[in-house]
Amino acid sequence: MDFLLSWLSRTPLTWWDVIDVLVVALIIYESLKLIRGTRAMQMAFGSALLVALYFFSLAAPLQTVNWLIRNMIGYVVFAAIVLFQNDIRRALAHFGRTPFVRAFSRAETDEETIEEVVTAATQMADRRTGALIVIERQIGLRNYIESGIPLDAMVTHDLLVTIFQTSGPLHDGAVIIQENKVAAASCFLPLTVNPTVGSDLGTRHRAAIGLTEENDAVAVVVSEETGRISVATEGHISRGFTPDTLRSRLTQLVLNRKAGRRQFPRP
After folding, report:
1. Tens-digit pLDDT profile for residues 121-131
2. How many alpha carbons lie under 13 Å from residue 38 in its C-beta half-sphere?
3. At a CB cut-off of 8 Å and minimum separation 6, what does 22 contact?
């Protein structure tokens, strides 16, 4: 303890030192979490054992062991790259999906998500397939996500169309998109109790209105009876969207979040 206190008193501690330690700790934590349960975990354990043996050979001293480790370490690195190239590729992709990196590519990913939703809604409207797709914005939808079947899948029009096929087990309920991923399907949403809502609106439309009355989410509804596409936000719904107008409206609501906070005009 005296040694630690004397060392801290000699070395001034700055905020940069704290940030340095936190970044290294985060990298180590994410790396361990990534290799947990994979064969790379055995490789990491073997590497740690090799490093410990190297320092032990310096302290003992074990000159032959130290010479052997120093000469074989380069070959071990190249062998690890060859043997674990798939794991390394997966690790780099994982770090590319961290929140810090995603912040730079969020707008592009949002545009791709919007395009997939527009394509799916158009296809289901042509086939008269009922659908309810909810896009999370600032306010979280965790309670509603937990009421459904978790998916955590990429947003593609093929997946959305497949989910809402009437012969499938997940078509009854809503799909919730969170952070450009299909978080869950077959989610239960609250129905609106607003008496001014028209009687011609079905359960999906009432659920879309009911959800958007409580938060800032955007709901896209495809009518099973008419094939019309509707968009609900802030407790109001507008119907009769074409692919172009739907794309424009979702771009305004999702990409331009400040514009999305304005009150949506009543139909």
Report:
1. 999 999 999 99
2. 15
3. none
